[in-house]
Every structure is written in structure tokens, then in C-alpha cells.
Amino acid sequence: MTDAEESKSIKFEILDKIAALIAAAFGLVAALAWNDAIKALFKEIFGTTDQLGPMIGYAVVVTVIAVILTIFIARAASKAKSIITRTYSCSLCDFKSEVQSEFMEHVTKKHAANDDKFLSK
Fold first, then answer.
1. Which of 1, 12, 19, 88 falls between 20 and 30 A from 38, CA-CA?
2. Model's pTM, two decimal places?
3. What is the C-alpha radius of gyration for the chain, rounded to an integer number of angstroms?
4. Distance between CA atoms of residues 26 and 106, nearest Å
């Protein structure tokens, strides 16, 4: 594995771990922030927080919100990975690069217009 590939692999792992930690943190913060407030609301409405039905409803709502946030974070991490791994391919030859400046340099030096060549799209 080359240094560039290893660096990219490490970046992917870091993105995955950060996304997982953020998702876990959202779940924990949401659960802690709403737990006492919702228990107080249940006590106000139902008289006690020991009733099973409202507590199950609360658990379902919190779970749905956590799932939606987790999907959102996973999509954001996937999008970040695709930005990191963009490959520029020359349509005139087999040259490929993951660095845009290298690709532009290749195109201007190797495929510059002259008497026997012309630049095509």
C-alpha cells in the first residue's frame, strides 16, 4: 500500500469513527435532555410516570428521531468520502489523478493545441 493510499484509508477510518461518535453523542444528549422533561409531562398528564403505554410511546419517538439523525450523519460521512476520493480522468489518454492540479497540468502540457494535435472535449 502506498503512502497516499494509506493516508486515504486513515482518513476514511477517521470519518467513520467521527460519524459514529457524533451519532452516539446525539443519542445520549437527546435522551438525557428530554428524559426528565418528558417524565414530568407524563406525570402531569397521566398522574404517574409508571404507566407503560406512554413510556413505550416515548421510547418509540426517541428511537425514530435517533434513527433519522443517524441516517443523516451516515449520508454526510459518505458524501465527505466521495469528495476525498474524486478521480480526474483524461478523455484523450489513460491519465488519471486524484489531484485536480496534476490533472490540469497534464492536460495543458500533454494535450496543448499545436499543428498536429487539437484539444477536444
1. 19
2. 0.42
3. 26
4. 45
Residue whose entry in the numeric block shows the C-alpha cell 449520508: 75
Q: What is the per-residue DSSP string for 33-75?
A: HHHHHHHHHHHHHHS-TT-HHHHHHHHHHHHHHHHHHHHHHHH
pLDDT < 70 regions, the chain: 1, 4-5, 48-52, 54, 84-85, 113-121
What is the pLDDT, as a whole number, of residue 109?
A: 79
CA atoms lying within 13 Å on the CB side of residue 118: 2
Closest CA to 7 of 83, 85, 71: 85
**Model pLDDT, residue 26:** 80
The DSSP bridge partners found for residue 88 are 97
Residue 89 — φ and ψ, nearest 5°? -115, 135
Model pLDDT, residue 121: 44
Q: Among all chains, which residue has been given the C-alpha cell 426528565?
A: 36
